[in-house]
From TrEMBL:
Pfam families: Acetyltransf_1 (PF00583). Keywords: Acyltransferase, Antibiotic resistance, Transferase. This is Aminoglycoside N(6')-acetyltransferase type 1. Gene3D superfamilies: 3.40.630.30. Acetyl-CoA binds at I63, F64, V65, Q71, R72, G73, V74, A75, K76, N102. NCBIfam families: AAC_6p_group_E, AAC_6p_Salmo. Coiled coil: none annotated. The gene is aac(6'). Residues 1-127 form the N-acetyltransferase domain. InterPro entries: Acyl_CoA_acyltransferase, Aminoglycoside_N6-AcTrfrase, Bact_Acetyltransf, GNAT_dom. Substrate binds at W4, H7, Y48, E61, D97, E118. The lineage of its organism: Bacteria, Pseudomonadati, Pseudomonadota, Gammaproteobacteria, Enterobacterales. Its EC number is 2.3.1.82. It catalyses: kanamycin B + acetyl-CoA = N(6')-acetylkanamycin B + CoA + H(+). One of its GO terms (biological process) is response to antibiotic.
């Protein structure tokens, strides 16, 4: 809830159910003394993923570590788990995204070994 505070509780529950049922989704939980201290949600994407050269791609949908556990390697361990899972699913690349104004997320991605590949502006038009 702290990562996506605007996401309603019932939607969080539905997302969790989908992750448990779908082979292309995974959630990794970091624990300390029996308490969840962080998580990473990931998917396997077969469609085009910006900045990637291969398919499928392991895609980091979200990552969160409790503030009191940050800077201790928890996120690095979560990313390693996602990478292993992706490799086992046939992925040669892992990708993620963030918004241009989220400079904290950008720094975290870089610290975790991600490289920026491009910046994109999305458009839509209603039919």
């Amino acid at each position: 809830k702290q990562l996506w505070p605007g996401h309603p509780d019932d939607a969080h529950l539905a997302d969790g159910e989908e992750i448990l049922q779908a082979d292309y989704l995974a959630s990794f939980i970091a624990m300390a003394d029996g308490v969840a201290i962080g998580f990473a949600d990931a998917s396997i994407r077969h469609d085009y993923v910006n900045g990637c050269d291969s398919s499928p791609v392991a895609f980091l949908e979200g990552i969160f570590v409790l503030p009191s556990f940050r800077q201790r390697g928890v996120a690095k361990q979560l990313i390693a788990a996602v990478q292993r899972w992706g490799a086992n699913k046939g992925c040669r690349e892992m990708a993620s995204d963030t918004t241009p104004e989220n400079t904290i997320s950008q720094k975290v991605h870089q610290a975790l070994g991600f490289e920026e590949t491009e910046r994109v502006i999305f458009y839509r038009k209603r039919c």
